[in-house]
TrEMBL record, chain A:
Pfam families: ETF. Residues 21-209 form the Electron transfer flavoprotein alpha/beta-subunit N-terminal domain. It comes from Deinococcus arenicola. The lineage of its organism: Bacteria, Thermotogati, Deinococcota, Deinococci, Deinococcales. InterPro entries: ETF_a/b_N, ETF_b, ETF_beta_N, Rossmann-like_a/b/a_fold. Belongs to the ETF beta-subunit/FixA family. This is Electron transfer flavoprotein subunit beta. Signal peptide: none annotated. It comes from the Bacteria. Keywords: Electron transport, Transport. PANTHER family: ELECTRON TRANSFER FLAVOPROTEIN BETA-SUBUNIT, ELECTRON TRANSFER FLAVOPROTEIN SUBUNIT BETA.
UniProtKB/TrEMBL annotation, chain B:
Residues 2-186 form the Electron transfer flavoprotein alpha/beta-subunit N-terminal domain. The lineage of its organism: Bacteria, Thermotogati, Deinococcota, Deinococci, Deinococcales. PANTHER family: ELECTRON TRANSFER FLAVOPROTEIN ALPHA, ELECTRON TRANSFER FLAVOPROTEIN SUBUNIT ALPHA, MITOCHONDRIAL. This is Electron transfer flavoprotein subunit alpha/FixB family protein. It holds the Pfam family ETF. Belongs to the ETF alpha-subunit/FixB family. InterPro entries: DHS-like_NAD/FAD-binding_dom, ETF_a/b_N, ETF_a/FixB, ETF_alpha_N, ETF_asu_C, Rossmann-like_a/b/a_fold. SUPFAM superfamilies: Adenine nucleotide alpha hydrolases-like (SSF52402), DHS-like NAD/FAD-binding domain (SSF52467). It comes from Deinococcus arenicola. Signal peptide: none annotated.
Length: 252, 316
């Protein structure tokens, strides 16, 4: 089995996000591999350790600095990486055309990626790629096993969770709970520098974005910030209830 | 037409459907607002839907008893094509956001995801949506013969009934056989109001202290005031509470009238799931907890002392 893992680079969750003009400004922001994608990379490595995985390839589409996220994946243990360098922002449905072409040329049987992007808050890439390839998809997966060409596992749905069984090829999106991603060790970081990081020309895929980005702003809702001293619990509780009933009018 | 795929649960139309009807009315797109009801034994839901729509298309089939992304995508794409839909609106639930991209690919349509505002700009559909863990509001735009969008729960006000009930039509669907076998389902049932429908939510974090305290204080207060119960990721990871209660980046996104956070520090991942609530109330003994920065009302104090007082006082 050949696994394709998709990797994105996003601001560190604790980093402050700022907007300059009408764009999110990432200058000086610490960028990391998307934590949700990291679960996908880790799961690929674990499936290989369990046997039956021939090769793991990581794919990233984005600006030059996305190389760092791919190097992290390589240092974790991915065999080789493909970087499609572009400053253009592709919406997930357009991007899935590139993913499908790469999955086809690489002969991938399983695509692993994060369930939601920490920068564009999108959950669409896995599903869109699955549709383009004519594959089934499992989203929000927190348990995964491969036996021969059958995937079994468990994933979250609207009203709970369910066990599943599906034949490969398939797309699986990962989330918290699936595994605990490993930290790359120093020797593996050194080794990763020698691994193949192929550059593909974005133009060769013939894909145009279908969604136009017009602007970004940070809307902060003005909060009342009314603070009540909790030293006297009884008085504090009475005062809060009074405010919720008579000022905010949210309780009867 | 504007095709709106109705969300329903427990045999009833979900609030998300009424919100999507508002989004459809706001969108300024051409054609009648058409609700598509998919499922089995959905006649009651279809009648409810008729009250808010110009017309209702009903796919009431045994093959639709169980949700499957490929089946749903095929059904919606087929109806959108046959009805020459200009716009397809799908609920921003976990399942909605799972099959909507498939619909967009099938229709070769642009996809606007989890939108909180929609408007027509000439031939284009313009939308706002949150990005960067809901800290940034982006404006995006797409055009084409048909555009697919998912609508964020709580992003629009629920629509009131239309002046006249819409006509209902049964539809025929050509559906694929699901390739994914469901081998067992755990439905996380709650006797309380669902988080997506709740007007008031009481959420507990690690600061509550223990699973026993959670039951006594968080559930105790929620039951007293008729609220839904939420939990932070830390509490779910610790095994105190089921995942279904988790609010935040990897859990549910909520926007209630009042969000009462007990012993919640306010990590970015949590704020991304509840930061748009109309009123935020925080009780935490750490005065420096980030949750207070977004709170309308806050008490710096011990949850284990203040919440019992709150429960007693709210009983009066």
């Amino acid at each position: 089995m050949k696994i394709l893992t998709l990797v994105r680079q996003v601001p560190d969750a604790e980093a402050r996000v700022k907007v300059s003009g009408d764009r999110v400004d990432l200058d000086g922001t610490t960028l990391v591999i998307d934590g949700m994608d990291e679960y996908g990379v880790e799961e690929a490595l674990r499936l290989r350790e369990a046997g039956g995985v021939e090769e793991i390839v990581a794919l990233a589409v984005g600006p030059k600095k996305v190389e760092d996220a791919l190097r992290t994946a390589l240092a974790m243990g991915v065999d080789r990486a493909i970087h499609i360098e572009t400053d253009e922002r592709f919406d997930a449905v357009s991007l899935s055309k590139i993913v499908a072409q790469i999955a086809g040329s690489e002969g991938s049987d399983l695509i692993l990626l994060g369930g939601q992007e920490a920068d564009w808050d999108s959950q669409a890439l896995g599903a869109a790629s699955a549709e383009r390839l004519g594959w089934p998809q499992l989203t929000w997966t927190n348990e995964l096993k491969v036996e021969g060409d059958t995937l079994t596992g468990r994933h979250d749905v609207d009203d709970g969770n369910e066990g599943f069984k599906v034949a490969l090829p398939a797309v699986v999106t990962a989330q918290q709970g699936l595994n605990e991603p490993r930290y790359p060790t120093l020797p593996n970081i050194m080794k990763a520098k020698k691994k193949e990081l192929r550059k593909d020309d974005v133009g060769s895929f013939g894909v145009q974005p279908a969604v136009e980005y017009l602007g970004a702003e940070i809307q902060t809702r003005a909060r009342l910030n009314k603070m009540i001293d909790g030293k006297d619990p009884q008085a504090a509780a009475e005062q809060l209830l009074d405010l919720l009933r008579n000022e905010a009018k949210v309780l009867a | 037409m504007i095709l709106v795929v109705a969300e329903h649960m427990g045999g009833k139309l979900a609030k998300a459907t009424l919100e999507m009807v508002t989004a459809a009315r706001d969108s300024g797109r051409e054609g009648p607002i058409t609700l598509l009801v998919l499922g089995q034994d959905v006649a009651g839901i279809a009648s409810e839907a008729a009250a808010v729509a110009d017309q209702v298309l009903v796919g009431d089939l045994p093959a639709l008893a169980q949700y499957n992304p490929e089946v749903w995508a095929a059904a919606v794409a087929q109806i959108a094509t046959e009805g020459e839909a200009s716009t397809v609106l799908i609920g921003g639930s976990r399942s909605g956001r799972e099959y909507a991209p498939r619909v967009a690919v099938k229709l070769d349509a642009p996809y606007l995801e989890d939108v909180i505002k929609l408007s027509a700009e000439g031939d284009a559909l313009q939308a706002q949506r949150y990005t960067y863990l809901a800290r940034v509001t982006e404006t995006v735009q797409a055009s084409g013969p048909v555009v697919v969008a998912t609508v964020k729960p709580g992003g629009f006000a629920p629509a009131a009934a239309a002046s006249a009930a819409g006509e209902q039509y049964d539809i025929e669907l050509d559906l694929p056989t699901p390739r994914t076998e469901i081998t067992g389902k755990n439905v996380e049932k709650t006797s309380r109001v669902a988080l997506s429908e709740a007007e008031v939510i009481v959420t507990g974090g690690r600061g509550v202290g223990s699973p026993e305290n959670f039951a006594q204080y968080v559930e105790g207060l929620a039951d007293n005031i008729g609220a839904g119960v939420g939990a932070t990721r830390a509490v779910v990871d610790a095994g105190w509470r089921p995942y279904a209660e988790q609010v935040g980046q990897t859990g549910k996104t909520v926007q209630p009238k009042a969000y009462i956070a007990l012993g919640v520090s306010g990590a970015v991942q949590h704020l991304s799931g509840m930061g748009k609530s109309k009123n935020i109330i925080a009780i935490n003994k750490d005065a420096e907890a980030p949750i207070f920065k977004v709170a309308d009302y806050g008490i710096v104090g011990d949850v284990n002392l203040i919440v019992p007082a709150l429960i007693a006082a709210s009983k009066k």
